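Problem 12. The chain below contains 295 residues. Write out its predicted structure in C-alpha coordinate notation.
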Amino acid sequence: MKKLKNIPTLRDDGFKLIMSYYDFKEYDKKNINDFYIHGLSDDTYEIKMPLPSHRQTKHSIILVTNGSLGTSSGFDNFTIERNTIIVTPAGQISSLAFMSDDIEGYYLHFTDEYLSHTKVDLSKWLIHPVIKFADEELAHLLVLLKRMQHLNENEANADIIKLYLTTLLSEMEQSSDFRLRKTFPAHERLTMEFKKLLNYHITKDKSVSFYASKLNVSPNHLNKSVKITLGRPASELIDEMLILEVKVLMQLNDLSISEIAYETGFEDVSYFGRFFKKHTGNTPTEYRKMIESSD
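Solution.
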Protein backbone atom coordinates (compact mmCIF):
# COMPACT_ATOMS: atom_id res chain seq x y z
CA MET A 1 0.00 0.00 0.00
CA LYS A 2 1.04 3.60 -0.52
CA LYS A 3 2.84 5.32 2.34
CA LEU A 4 0.48 7.03 4.79
CA LYS A 5 0.93 10.33 6.53
CA ASN A 6 -1.32 12.97 8.05
CA ILE A 7 -2.37 16.05 6.09
CA PRO A 8 -4.45 19.17 6.79
CA THR A 9 -8.22 19.01 6.80
CA LEU A 10 -9.68 19.54 3.33
CA ARG A 11 -11.30 22.95 2.84
CA ASP A 12 -13.98 23.97 0.35
CA ASP A 13 -11.44 25.32 -2.15
CA GLY A 14 -8.63 23.00 -1.08
CA PHE A 15 -9.00 19.94 -3.30
CA LYS A 16 -5.34 20.30 -4.28
CA LEU A 17 -4.25 20.30 -0.62
CA ILE A 18 -4.80 16.55 -0.48
CA MET A 19 -2.11 15.96 -3.11
CA SER A 20 1.63 15.69 -2.58
CA TYR A 21 2.06 16.02 -6.35
CA TYR A 22 -0.20 17.17 -9.15
CA ASP A 23 0.02 18.28 -12.75
CA PHE A 24 -0.54 22.06 -12.71
CA LYS A 25 -2.14 22.08 -16.15
CA GLU A 26 -4.55 19.35 -15.10
CA TYR A 27 -5.54 20.65 -11.65
CA ASP A 28 -5.57 24.43 -12.13
CA LYS A 29 -8.76 24.36 -14.18
CA LYS A 30 -11.31 27.03 -13.27
CA ASN A 31 -14.14 24.56 -12.82
CA ILE A 32 -12.30 22.10 -10.54
CA ASN A 33 -14.48 22.95 -7.53
CA ASP A 34 -17.73 22.60 -9.52
CA PHE A 35 -16.88 19.35 -11.28
CA TYR A 36 -13.87 17.13 -11.53
CA ILE A 37 -13.05 13.59 -12.61
CA HIS A 38 -9.83 11.61 -12.66
CA GLY A 39 -8.70 8.02 -12.88
CA LEU A 40 -7.50 6.49 -9.60
CA SER A 41 -4.40 5.16 -11.35
CA ASP A 42 -3.61 8.38 -13.27
CA ASP A 43 -0.01 9.57 -12.94
CA THR A 44 -1.05 13.25 -12.88
CA TYR A 45 -1.38 13.29 -9.09
CA GLU A 46 -0.49 11.56 -5.84
CA ILE A 47 -2.79 11.78 -2.83
CA LYS A 48 -1.40 12.29 0.67
CA MET A 49 -2.84 9.73 3.03
CA PRO A 50 -4.51 9.14 5.31
CA LEU A 51 -6.87 11.98 4.41
CA PRO A 52 -8.35 12.94 7.80
CA SER A 53 -12.02 13.46 8.50
CA HIS A 54 -13.48 16.51 6.77
CA ARG A 55 -16.92 17.74 5.85
CA GLN A 56 -17.55 17.50 2.13
CA THR A 57 -19.00 20.53 0.39
CA LYS A 58 -19.51 18.59 -2.84
CA HIS A 59 -21.06 15.27 -3.80
CA SER A 60 -18.43 12.65 -4.55
CA ILE A 61 -18.40 9.27 -6.27
CA ILE A 62 -15.59 6.72 -6.15
CA LEU A 63 -15.72 3.66 -8.40
CA VAL A 64 -13.11 0.92 -7.90
CA THR A 65 -12.50 -1.46 -10.81
CA ASN A 66 -9.34 -3.05 -9.39
CA GLY A 67 -7.55 -3.09 -6.05
CA SER A 68 -9.18 -1.58 -2.96
CA LEU A 69 -9.40 1.52 -0.81
CA GLY A 70 -10.54 2.27 2.71
CA THR A 71 -12.88 5.19 3.31
CA SER A 72 -15.54 6.45 5.70
CA SER A 73 -18.86 8.16 5.16
CA GLY A 74 -20.51 9.61 8.23
CA PHE A 75 -20.14 7.14 11.11
CA ASP A 76 -19.32 4.10 8.99
CA ASN A 77 -16.09 2.67 7.55
CA PHE A 78 -15.97 0.84 4.23
CA THR A 79 -13.48 -1.13 2.17
CA ILE A 80 -14.30 -0.53 -1.49
CA GLU A 81 -13.19 -3.30 -3.84
CA ARG A 82 -13.59 -4.35 -7.50
CA ASN A 83 -16.83 -3.32 -9.28
CA THR A 84 -17.97 -1.32 -6.26
CA ILE A 85 -18.96 2.31 -5.91
CA ILE A 86 -19.40 4.61 -2.92
CA VAL A 87 -21.46 7.80 -3.09
CA THR A 88 -20.89 10.49 -0.47
CA PRO A 89 -23.48 13.31 -0.56
CA ALA A 90 -22.40 16.87 0.20
CA GLY A 91 -22.48 17.67 3.89
CA GLN A 92 -21.21 14.27 4.99
CA ILE A 93 -18.03 13.87 7.00
CA SER A 94 -15.67 11.52 5.21
CA SER A 95 -12.06 10.34 5.26
CA LEU A 96 -9.70 8.20 3.19
CA ALA A 97 -7.50 5.65 4.99
CA PHE A 98 -5.64 3.91 2.17
CA MET A 99 -5.49 2.99 -1.50
CA SER A 100 -3.79 -0.20 -2.63
CA ASP A 101 -0.90 0.12 -5.09
CA ASP A 102 -2.90 -1.67 -7.79
CA ILE A 103 -5.89 0.66 -7.48
CA GLU A 104 -7.87 1.43 -10.63
CA GLY A 105 -11.15 3.21 -11.13
CA TYR A 106 -12.51 6.76 -11.02
CA TYR A 107 -13.10 9.61 -8.62
CA LEU A 108 -15.44 12.48 -9.41
CA HIS A 109 -17.08 15.30 -7.52
CA PHE A 110 -19.70 17.89 -8.39
CA THR A 111 -21.83 20.55 -6.73
CA ASP A 112 -25.59 20.97 -6.61
CA GLU A 113 -25.18 24.11 -8.71
CA TYR A 114 -23.41 22.16 -11.43
CA LEU A 115 -26.55 20.10 -11.98
CA SER A 116 -29.00 22.90 -11.26
CA HIS A 117 -30.81 22.08 -14.52
CA THR A 118 -32.14 18.89 -12.94
CA LYS A 119 -33.30 17.74 -9.54
CA VAL A 120 -30.57 15.59 -8.00
CA ASP A 121 -31.35 14.04 -4.63
CA LEU A 122 -28.50 11.96 -3.27
CA SER A 123 -29.99 11.65 0.22
CA LYS A 124 -31.11 8.10 -0.67
CA TRP A 125 -27.42 7.16 -0.49
CA LEU A 126 -27.11 8.22 3.16
CA ILE A 127 -28.26 4.84 4.50
CA HIS A 128 -26.66 2.58 1.87
CA PRO A 129 -23.78 4.50 0.23
CA VAL A 130 -22.12 1.45 -1.34
CA ILE A 131 -23.33 -0.75 -4.21
CA LYS A 132 -21.72 -3.48 -6.29
CA PHE A 133 -22.22 -3.79 -10.04
CA ALA A 134 -22.41 -6.82 -12.27
CA ASP A 135 -19.79 -6.81 -15.06
CA GLU A 136 -22.31 -5.80 -17.73
CA GLU A 137 -23.64 -2.96 -15.55
CA LEU A 138 -20.12 -1.72 -14.91
CA ALA A 139 -19.36 -1.66 -18.63
CA HIS A 140 -22.10 0.95 -19.22
CA LEU A 141 -20.74 3.15 -16.42
CA LEU A 142 -17.18 2.96 -17.69
CA VAL A 143 -18.22 4.22 -21.13
CA LEU A 144 -19.78 7.29 -19.50
CA LEU A 145 -16.88 7.91 -17.12
CA LYS A 146 -14.22 7.63 -19.83
CA ARG A 147 -16.19 10.01 -22.03
CA MET A 148 -16.60 12.55 -19.19
CA GLN A 149 -12.89 12.44 -18.41
CA HIS A 150 -12.06 13.11 -22.05
CA LEU A 151 -14.60 15.92 -22.35
CA ASN A 152 -13.30 17.55 -19.16
CA GLU A 153 -10.02 18.31 -20.91
CA ASN A 154 -11.85 21.30 -22.39
CA GLU A 155 -13.90 23.50 -20.04
CA ALA A 156 -16.11 24.50 -22.97
CA ASN A 157 -17.67 21.02 -22.80
CA ALA A 158 -19.41 21.64 -19.46
CA ASP A 159 -22.95 21.40 -20.85
CA ILE A 160 -22.24 18.05 -22.51
CA ILE A 161 -20.57 16.72 -19.35
CA LYS A 162 -23.68 17.61 -17.35
CA LEU A 163 -25.76 15.41 -19.64
CA TYR A 164 -23.34 12.52 -19.22
CA LEU A 165 -23.29 13.00 -15.44
CA THR A 166 -27.08 12.97 -15.26
CA THR A 167 -27.08 9.76 -17.31
CA LEU A 168 -24.44 8.22 -15.03
CA LEU A 169 -26.51 8.89 -11.91
CA SER A 170 -29.56 7.38 -13.61
CA GLU A 171 -27.61 4.28 -14.69
CA MET A 172 -26.31 3.79 -11.16
CA GLU A 173 -29.87 3.70 -9.85
CA GLN A 174 -30.87 1.17 -12.50
CA SER A 175 -28.37 -1.40 -11.21
CA SER A 176 -29.80 -4.58 -9.73
CA ASP A 177 -28.17 -3.91 -6.36
CA PHE A 178 -29.71 -0.43 -6.13
CA ARG A 179 -33.17 -1.55 -7.27
CA LEU A 180 -33.32 -4.03 -4.39
CA ARG A 181 -33.32 -1.11 -1.98
CA LYS A 182 -35.31 1.38 -4.05
CA THR A 183 -38.52 1.19 -2.02
CA PHE A 184 -37.37 2.19 1.42
CA PRO A 185 -39.63 1.31 4.37
CA ALA A 186 -40.92 4.22 6.46
CA HIS A 187 -38.32 3.80 9.20
CA GLU A 188 -35.44 4.06 6.66
CA ARG A 189 -36.93 7.13 4.98
CA LEU A 190 -37.26 8.80 8.39
CA THR A 191 -33.67 7.88 9.26
CA MET A 192 -32.42 9.39 5.98
CA GLU A 193 -34.19 12.66 6.74
CA PHE A 194 -32.83 12.61 10.29
CA LYS A 195 -29.25 12.16 9.05
CA LYS A 196 -29.70 15.04 6.61
CA LEU A 197 -30.83 17.31 9.45
CA LEU A 198 -27.88 16.24 11.61
CA ASN A 199 -25.47 17.56 8.99
CA TYR A 200 -26.97 21.04 9.25
CA HIS A 201 -27.95 21.37 12.92
CA ILE A 202 -25.64 19.17 15.00
CA THR A 203 -23.55 22.02 16.46
CA LYS A 204 -26.63 23.99 17.48
CA ASP A 205 -29.22 21.40 18.52
CA LYS A 206 -28.44 18.16 20.32
CA SER A 207 -31.84 16.97 21.54
CA VAL A 208 -33.89 14.20 19.97
CA SER A 209 -37.00 16.33 20.52
CA PHE A 210 -35.63 19.08 18.22
CA TYR A 211 -35.14 16.67 15.30
CA ALA A 212 -38.42 14.87 16.01
CA SER A 213 -40.22 18.22 15.83
CA LYS A 214 -38.55 19.02 12.51
CA LEU A 215 -39.69 15.64 11.17
CA ASN A 216 -43.22 15.89 12.64
CA VAL A 217 -42.89 12.72 14.73
CA SER A 218 -42.55 12.02 18.44
CA PRO A 219 -39.06 11.63 19.99
CA ASN A 220 -39.94 8.05 20.89
CA HIS A 221 -40.94 7.24 17.30
CA LEU A 222 -37.73 8.79 15.95
CA ASN A 223 -35.57 6.82 18.39
CA LYS A 224 -37.32 3.56 17.50
CA SER A 225 -37.17 4.14 13.74
CA VAL A 226 -33.45 4.95 13.79
CA LYS A 227 -32.74 1.95 16.01
CA ILE A 228 -34.59 -0.40 13.65
CA THR A 229 -32.58 0.99 10.72
CA LEU A 230 -29.12 1.36 12.22
CA GLY A 231 -29.17 -0.69 15.39
CA ARG A 232 -28.88 2.28 17.75
CA PRO A 233 -31.30 5.07 18.73
CA ALA A 234 -31.30 8.63 17.44
CA SER A 235 -29.82 9.88 20.72
CA GLU A 236 -26.66 7.81 20.15
CA LEU A 237 -26.32 9.05 16.57
CA ILE A 238 -26.48 12.64 17.81
CA ASP A 239 -23.61 11.96 20.22
CA GLU A 240 -21.59 10.11 17.54
CA MET A 241 -22.06 12.93 15.04
CA LEU A 242 -21.04 15.51 17.62
CA ILE A 243 -17.85 13.60 18.47
CA LEU A 244 -17.08 13.35 14.76
CA GLU A 245 -17.47 17.13 14.40
CA VAL A 246 -15.16 17.70 17.36
CA LYS A 247 -12.50 15.35 15.95
CA VAL A 248 -12.53 17.25 12.66
CA LEU A 249 -11.99 20.56 14.48
CA MET A 250 -9.26 19.04 16.67
CA GLN A 251 -7.09 18.79 13.55
CA LEU A 252 -7.10 22.59 13.21
CA ASN A 253 -4.19 23.76 15.38
CA ASP A 254 -5.36 27.38 15.26
CA LEU A 255 -8.42 26.53 17.40
CA SER A 256 -8.09 26.15 21.17
CA ILE A 257 -10.02 23.49 23.11
CA SER A 258 -12.37 26.15 24.49
CA GLU A 259 -12.97 27.53 20.98
CA ILE A 260 -13.78 24.04 19.71
CA ALA A 261 -16.22 23.59 22.60
CA TYR A 262 -17.94 26.85 21.64
CA GLU A 263 -17.98 25.97 17.92
CA THR A 264 -19.77 22.69 18.68
CA GLY A 265 -22.39 24.26 20.95
CA PHE A 266 -20.92 23.66 24.41
CA GLU A 267 -21.02 26.69 26.70
CA ASP A 268 -19.35 24.83 29.58
CA VAL A 269 -15.81 23.75 28.65
CA SER A 270 -15.61 21.38 31.63
CA TYR A 271 -18.77 19.58 30.52
CA PHE A 272 -17.40 19.45 26.98
CA GLY A 273 -14.28 17.73 28.30
CA ARG A 274 -16.31 15.17 30.26
CA PHE A 275 -18.56 14.49 27.26
CA PHE A 276 -15.58 13.96 24.97
CA LYS A 277 -13.80 11.63 27.39
CA LYS A 278 -16.97 9.60 27.98
CA HIS A 279 -17.25 8.85 24.27
CA THR A 280 -13.57 8.54 23.30
CA GLY A 281 -11.71 7.50 26.46
CA ASN A 282 -9.43 10.55 26.15
CA THR A 283 -9.63 14.15 27.24
CA PRO A 284 -9.63 16.74 24.42
CA THR A 285 -6.03 17.66 25.31
CA GLU A 286 -4.92 14.01 25.24
CA TYR A 287 -6.62 13.47 21.89
CA ARG A 288 -4.95 16.52 20.35
CA LYS A 289 -1.55 15.34 21.60
CA MET A 290 -2.22 11.98 19.91
CA ILE A 291 -2.84 13.81 16.62
CA GLU A 292 0.33 15.89 17.01
CA SER A 293 2.48 12.86 17.85
CA SER A 294 1.30 11.07 14.70
CA ASP A 295 2.39 13.88 12.38
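Discussion. The chain has a mean pLDDT of 84. Students who got a different answer should revisit the alignment rule from Section 12.3.
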